[in-house]
Structure formats: structure tokens, C-alpha cells
Write a structure and sequence with these properties.
heterotrimer, A: 99 residues, mainly alpha, B: 88% helix
């Protein structure tokens, strides 16, 4: 039982990072692609700018998740990045609903 | 003949990279047993970069910036790869 | 973790960023490596897909001169009046220097979704439907490259995108792991012995790095609308709004509502001539016609690939029934143009022949990069096996999949071409059978790889690939009217070039087979931790 617990404890942080990278990374990229709509340009151009840069955000997020010292920091970093992007995206949703 | 600029670019890039490689101390030691005089090294470096820039000029002149840059990227990749392989093979032979 | 870092002067850091990036690189590479290899190889050959298609339709003569696009467009449009009667949307691809047939597709009226399109191949001179064997041509490799096969198209594209995202991470982590490479650009050569696989993998990765990074990122961009639709969904609620975006991306305009009022299509030829005047006689790519025969018909004539590294839409829009020029679209917004350039860089269609060859060679290097990476995984871990003849399951699996995914794919792709020459011309579903044959052979290769000892399997498959490639021009000489010698005499560089390339590829496989035969695995070294072993261990035997 102890061996299983030890295994789980060792694998846990790694699994957490994998989840953070794949889902968190993609999520951040998706968020960035929506946040791009807040940029001062016509909607089609903003949509495309968001699309074009989203994959760089994804790659950056994944590298971050595995570069930092702990799984906790990995998630923290993603959340910190998500805040300004989320705010921008939220303002777009609000603005979009209004127009 | 169309496409002449590709031939010219290749003929410039290959020796260009070879010169840059030879301008590195480690290769001088490996191939010739000693480092070159600093003036020779500097000249090799100038010649190498010069050849590459000239190739860029030829390609951009013949194809415009967009296509020229793409061609240049292809030529440099190929030439650098060939020089690298030559160094590898040589290093293996000498060992 | 075994040492794969270049000789470090300082003592190894405790699990620093380079180590974690190395692990990330290895895992992302391994998990999708077999798919990536297949994507890379089929992508590489796709740069010559039109030539492959020509070779796969030997009944259609070599096209010495590109026919006049205007005349061709008219012929095909006339044909489509019967062939595609009632269809609200026609699309005619115009001939160019690399294509001796015209492909057209049209929407079947009344059916929605993906199945709604029908297509046909037409002779550019007569306008008749092509009288050649039923084959998909090189387009099979092209489509496989981004949507695989035997699965719904969306799944295939998602799988390809997933692999591409992993590839992007592999590239970035690879660069961080070996960032020293950029400092010691040419001096990164490990030298002797076991490092040969590492040398090869690193050389191929570094020299093609601009290309590999570009091709991976731009690959994601080509299907970005699928992978990242969120911005578009957030911004556009109505179809009209979505149109704002789509006109920035393509020349396919949505048909207007049909008026029901019949009106004969004005001569397409005249419309294309206007476009030719603007962009060049042979620089017209497509003619799209919506609602032909209706008063609301529209015709767009779009610009060809030549001389411009962007796929952003440039077209002339005509009123279908009168031929009046309504709009000339010459530019799109900056983000759209950036996307257009990135898309074009991936496709590489803008290039002249030499540029296309450069693309092919560097892309082939990329394929080899993935392949050497996969093989390196087993080479490094073989040393650590307690009993190399009885590896653990994961190792066994990776090793056998490597053989089938790499050597086996060469055999399978060549079998596809063999099938093109050998399958009976009147076989029903012939073009699908050509593809099925590829997968059947691939499956047999996997079986072979699992049943034979690993090294034997590699050698045998590499030799089979060599033979298959080398004999293909011979087969073609016996089964068609276009043997190599005749193509050379006639200056038919499509056929001759392709067959000579097959021989070059055969030679490459033979070289790999010989090196594998000569390679003897390193004797088990003393188990030493991090310190890289200075080379006394392996003088000879390391041919690979």
C-alpha cells in the first residue's frame, strides 16, 4: 500500500504538469485568441491576429510548465497570465453582447 | 538561362559557410594542427559573411524580397548542412 | 537520464532547465513521433504532388506548353453545364506548368455537409473528362499529410494538429536543451562512436531549424480556424459578419439567393482574359462560378501562385450573366496578409523549380530528423537493458514501431505507386484500392517487424524498399508507353525527373541498409553516472 502511495506521490506532480501543459496551455492560448479582439483594429484583423499568435502562447505556456521548479508554480504562472487575458476577453464578451 | 541566380547563390553560400567554419579556432586546430594567424581568421570571417550577403543580394535582386528571402533561407540551410556533414565526415576519417 | 549533452565544462546541475527541457523534448517527440514521421514524409513528397499525379496518369501526354487558361476555362465551364447541371457552385482549377489535367469540383444541389461535393478531372485541350486510369494521384499523399485516412476528416485534422502542437513543443524544448548549438554553431560535432545518431539528429535539426520551426508553426496556421475558432466565434454572430472574415481568407464567395430568373452565363473566356491582362497569361489559378444559369450568377477569377508568396485572395469578380467587372480585389488587411504569407510558406507553391527542390531537400532532412530522433531513443536505451534480447515491453514496442513507421512507410508508399501501375484499369473503386494497397503493405511491414529480430527486420525492410524503388521505373517501362529512356529523349522532365529521383531514393535506402548491416551495437559499458565516457570504448564497428 505504501509503495502505491509513494508512486502516486511521485507521479502526481508530473501528471499535474501534464494537465497544466495540455489543457492549461491550450486554454491560455484560446483565451489569448479571444483577448486579441480587444486590440485596436477591425474585428476580422483582430480575430486573425489572435489566431496567429495563439500557438506561440501555447508553446510558451508548455515550456513554462516544465521549466519551473514545481507543479504548483506551473499552475500559478498560468493563472497569473490568464488574469490580464481573461479581463481583456471578458471585456470583449461584454462589448460583443452589447453591440 | 532562367534560374541562374540559384546556381550563383549556391556557389556563394557553400564556400561562404566553409570559410566561416574555418574561421573557428577549433576547426583550425583539428584540421591543420594549429590556430591560424588572427589576420587570416579575420579575413576568412569577412569573406564568409561577405559571400553570404552577396548571395542574399543576388537572390533578392532576382526574385524580390519575399521570394528572395525564402530562397536564401533554403540555400543557407542546404549549404550549412553540407559543410557540417563534410566536417563530420572528415573528423571521422581523421580519428 | 543518460547524458546527451555536449561536453560540459562545469559539473552537472541538479535537474536544471536543460534537463527538464530534454525530458520534455524526448517525451513529446516519442509520443507522436511515428505520426510526425509519416506527416513529414508525405508532406515532403507532396511538394511534387502534381508531378506524382502526372506520373500516375501515364495515358495523358506530357504537356509541353501550358494551354491558354481562358480557352480551358470556357471548355470546362461548357462541360459543367451538363456534368454539373443544377449545381449552385462550380470551381474550376486552371492548368499550369505542373498540371496536365484540370480538376474541377461542384456542389451537388440539395445535399449539405462534406459529402455535398463532386469532382472531376478534365483534359485541358478538349475539355472532355479525362480518359485515364482512376487514380487519386499525388493528392493522396497531400491529404494524408494533414488528415490521415480511414477516419472522419475532422478527426484526422485534429490528430494532425495535436501532433503539430507537440512538434512545436519538441522544437522549442530541443532548442533550449541544446542552446549551446547556437553559440558553437559548427563545432557541435560529437565525433566518435555512439554519438553518431546524436550527431545526425542534431545536424538535421539545427540546419533545418528555420525551416522546421516555420513549417510547424505555419502548418498549425493552415488549420487554425479549426484549432482556434474561439476568437471568430466571439466576434461574429451572424453569417454576414462571418463573411467579413471569410473574404479576407479566400476567393470562395457564398452564393447569393437564386432569383429563379434564367440567364445564360456570359463567356467565361472574356472574363479570364481580363484577369490574364492583369496578372499574366499563365498566372490564373481558379475560376469559381456561383449560381450558373441564374441572373444572380457571379464569377470570380483568381490570381495564380507565381511571383507572390501569399495565398491571400486576389481576384476579379464579374457579374455572371453580363460579364461586367464588379470588383477587383487586390489586398486584404495586415493580419490577413500575414496569414496569407504564412500559409503560402507552408505550401511552397510560389516557388520556381529550384526553390521547390530546396523545400523538398530541407523537408526530407526534417523527416530524417524525426526518424533519427525515434531511433536514437532505442539506441540509447538498449545499452541500459539488462538483457538486450529480452527487452521490456515498452522498448520492444517502440523498436518495432520504429521499423514499421520508418522503413515500412517507404515500402508502403512505393507499393502505392506499384499499385498504380499494376492494378487492373477497370477495377471498381480503383483509386481507393491503390490507397488500400498502401495500408495493407504497411500492415504487413508491421507484422514483419514484430516477427523478425529487430536488426534483421531493419535490414530486410530497407533492402525491400531499395528494390521496390529501384524496380519501379523498370515496371513502369513495361506497363506503360513511357519508359525512362523515352522520357529523357523527349525532354519530359516530369517523368524522367521522378524516375531518376526514385533511383536516388533507392540508393539512399541501400546506403542505410548497408550501414545498418555494418553497425554492431556497443558492448555493455561500465555503469557510470553522468560523466561522459571518453572514447576509448568503441573504435571500430560503429558504421552507423
Amino acid at each position: 500500500m505504501n509503495a502505491v502511495l509513494h508512486r502516486a506521490l511521485r507521479v502526481g506532480p508530473l501528471l499535474s504538469r501534464i494537465v497544466a501543459a495540455m489543457f492549461g496551455g491550450y486554454g491560455l492560448a484560446a483565451l489569448a485568441s479571444v483577448a486579441a479582439l480587444a486590440l485596436p483594429m477591425s474585428k476580422p484583423q483582430a480575430v486573425l491576429t489572435g489566431m496567429l499568435s495563439s500557438f506561440a502562447v501555447f508553446a510558451g505556456a508548455v515550456v513554462w510548465v516544465f521549466a519551473v521548479r514545481s507543479a504548483r508554480r506551473a499552475w500559478a504562472g498560468l493563472l497569473v497570465a490568464a488574469v490580464p487575458l481573461g479581463l481583456a476577453a471578458w471585456s470583449v464578451w461584454r462589448g460583443g453582447a452589447a453591440s | 538561362m532562367s534560374g541562374w541566380f540559384h546556381g550563383v547563390a549556391f556557389v556563394l553560400c557553400l564556400p561562404g559557410f566553409a570559410a566561416l567554419a574555418l574561421a573557428m579556432e577549433r576547426h583550425q586546430e583539428d584540421r591543420f594542427g594549429h590556430a591560424f594567424a588572427p589576420s587570416l581568421t579575420r579575413r576568412l570571417r569577412v569573406a564568409g559573411w561577405g559571400a553570404l550577403l552577396l548571395a542574399l543580394g543576388v537572390l533578392v535582386g532576382a526574385q524580390g524580397w519575399g521570394l528572395g528571402l525564402v530562397s536564401f533561407s533554403g540555400h543557407t540551410s542546404l549549404a550549412a548542412g553540407l559543410v557540417f556533414v563534410a566536417l563530420l565526415v572528415q573528423g571521422r576519417r581523421q580519428a | 537520464m543518460s547524458t546527451d549533452k555536449p561536453a560540459k565544462k562545469s559539473p552537472p546541475k541538479p535537474r536544471g532547465i536543460r534537463q527538464s527541457m530534454s525530458d520534455l523534448h524526448i517525451w513529446t517527440g516519442l509520443l507522436v513521433g511515428w505520426f510526425l514521421y509519416a506527416m513529414f514524409l508525405t508532406g515532403t513528397v507532396s511538394y511534387f504532388k502534381d508531378e506524382i499525379s502526372q506520373w500516375m496518369r501515364p495515358e495523358i501526354a506530357h504537356q509541353a506548353q501550358v494551354p491558354d487558361a481562358a480557352v480551358v476555362a470556357q471548355h470546362v465551364a461548357d462541360k459543367l453545364r451538363t456534368e454539373a447541371a443544377g449545381s449552385p457552385q462550380w470551381s474550376i482549377g486552371l492548368p499550369d506548368a505542373r498540371n496536365n489535367v484540370v480538376s474541377a469540383f461542384w456542389r451537388t444541389p440539395g445535399i449539405e455537409g462534406r459529402r455535398a461535393f463532386q469532382s472531376g478531372t478534365f483534359d485541358p485541350v478538349s475539355g472532355d473528362k479525362v480518359a485515364g486510369r482512376d487514380t487519386g494521384g499525388g493528392n493522396f499523399f497531400y491529404r494524408f499529410h494533414f488528415q490521415f485516412h480511414y477516419m472522419p476528416v475532422l478527426w484526422g485534422r485534429w490528430l494532425a494538429g495535436f501532433c503539430a502542437m507537440f512538434m512545436l513543443v519538441a522544437i522549442v524544448s530541443g532548442v533550449i536543451t541544446h542552446k549551446k548549438i547556437f553559440i558553437d554553431f559548427f563545432t557541435f560535432r560529437g565525433g566518435k562512436g555512439q554519438r553518431s545518431w546524436l550527431d545526425a539528429h542534431n545536424a538535421l535539426s539545427v540546419f533545418g531549424l528555420p525551416f522546421h520551426l516555420m513549417i510547424t508553426y505555419t502548418g498549425l496556421i493552415t488549420l487554425a480556424a479549426l484549432y482556434m475558432p474561439w476568437g471568430s466565434q466571439a466576434a461574429f454572430k451572424t453569417p454576414a459578419e462571418r463573411q467579413e472574415l471569410s473574404v479576407q481568407l479566400s476567393a470562395f464567395i457564398t452564393p447569393a439567393k437564386p432569383t429563379g430568373q434564367a440567364a445564360r452565363l456570359a463567356p467565361i473566356e472574356d472574363m479570364v482574359r481580363q484577369a490574364q491582362a492583369r496578372w499574366g497569361r499563365d498566372n490564373i489559378q481558379r475560376v469559381n462560378i456561383t449560381l450558373p444559369g441564374d441572373a444572380a450568377a457571379r464569377v470570380t477569377v483568381s490570381r495564380g501562385d507565381e511571383g507572390r508568396a501569399s495565398v491571400s485572395p486576389q481576384y476579379m469578380l464579374f457579374e455572371g450573366s453580363t460579364g461586367k467587372l464588379l470588383e477587383t480585389k487586390d489586398s486584404v488587411g495586415p493580419a490577413a496578409e500575414t496569414r496569407g504569407v504564412m500559409y503560402a510558406l507552408h505550401l511552397g507553391r510560389f516557388g520556381d523549380t529550384a526553390t521547390r527542390w530546396l523545400y523538398f531537400l530541407v523537408s526530407l532532412a526534417g523527416t530524417a530528423m524525426v526518424g533519427t530522433g525515434l531511433v536514437m531513443w532505442t539506441v540509447k536505451r538498449r545499452q541500459k537493458l539488462p538483457d538486450p534480447d529480452k527487452p521490456y515491453f515498452g522498448f520492444w514496442l517502440v523498436e518495432r514501431l520504429n521499423i514499421a513507421a520508418i522503413a515500412g512507410l517507404s515500402i508502403a508508399m512505393t507499393a502505392f505507386l506499384w499499385g498504380n501501375r499494376l492494378l487492373p484499369l477497370d477495377l471498381p473503386r480503383r483509386s481507393e484500392w491503390e490507397v488500400d494497397l498502401l495500408f495493407i503493405v504497411w500492415g504487413l511491414a508491421l507484422l514483419h517487424a514484430m516477427l523478425r529480430p529487430a536488426k534483421r527486420a531493419w535490414i530486410e525492410q530497407l533492402w525491400i524498399a531499395t528494390a521496390a524503388l529501384a524496380l519501379l521505373p523498370v515496371l513502369s517501362a513495361f506497363t506503360t508507353e513511357r519508359p525512362l529512356w523515352r522520357s529523357l529523349l523527349a525532354g519530359d522532365w516530369v517523368f524522367a525527373g521522378l524516375e531518376l529521383t526514385l533511383w536516388a531514393l533507392a540508393a539512399l535506402h541501400a546506403l542505410l541498409a548497408i550501414r545498418t548491416m555494418r553497425h554492431s551495437p556497443k558492448p555493455k559499458p561500465a555503469r557510470r553516472a553522468a560523466a561522459p565516457v571518453a572514447t576509448t570504448a568503441t573504435p571500430a564497428g560503429e558504421g552507423a
